[in-house]
Amino acid sequence: MNELDSMKELVRADGFLYTKDVVNAGIRKETLKRFLNDGSLVREARGIYSFPDRLNDEFVLLQARCRKGIFSYGTALYFHGMSDRFPNMISMTVPKNYNVYYLQEELFHVRFQRIKPEWWNIGIMEMISPQGGLIRLYDRERCICDMIRDRKNTDPQVFSQAVKGYFSSKEYDMIRLMEYAGHFHLEEKIQEYMEILL
To answer: Which of 27, 61, 114, 164 is such that its CA lies 20 to 30 A from the CA of 54?
Structure first.
């Protein structure tokens, strides 16, 4: 097996090749550079590579670059079918203590929402993205809590479509919604929407 084939064996489930996996396999970094120069490899980001004959998922790549970034707000609503508008800016939520400053300089199309670390992992789930890769995003109930919690900064049309659509669907989980509402101190607000919309 040649070095390029050996590298293809190291591709992770997300479809990308990582420098640290190459080095751990005993392949020199200079080999990466050689394959980059001859077009056998594509550099996606610092330490992350792909092969030109493979289609890669941009949403998976974003999460590879920002390990604690969870798709949220309008982006998650779109993935859940709760909004028919793909947002101009992709929203990712990270813990407040997670450093994304270096990414903000490069990723102009991503808005990072910073949140208390203890709230960050509430409602994380996995889903297949529109491009076919496995991504992490907040579930429907967490999206509703985020919409209500941050209503002032949310597009009124997106807010209305998401909240009305959630409560009129047969897929809502009231127990989970109220559990999340307790974490975010939104019980009264959620009750108000339930009284109006149910």
So the answer is: 27
Please indicate, yes or no, whether the overall pTM of this predicted structure exceeds 0.85: yes
Question: Residue 149: CB partners within 8 Å, gap ≥ 6?
Answer: 184, 186
Tally of structural domains, the chain? 2
| Separation CA 74–CA 149 (nearest Å) | 14
Q: 134 and 51 in one domain?
A: no
CA distance 136 to 188: 29
- Domain CATH number, residue 142: 3.30.460
Side chain identity at residue 58, one-letter code: E
Are 143 and 183 part of one and the same domain?
yes
Q: Are residues 81 and 46 in the same domain?
A: no
Cβ-contact 116, 136 below 8 angstroms: no
For residue 94, give Cα distances in angstroms to 77, 112, 137, 164, 185: 17, 7, 11, 27, 20
Q: Is 170 helix (H, G, I), strand (E, B) or coil?
A: coil
Q: Using alpha carbons, list the distances in angstroms from residue 198 to 132, 151, 188, 193.
A: 35, 20, 15, 8
The number of CA neighbours under 13 Å toward the Cβ of 76 is: 28
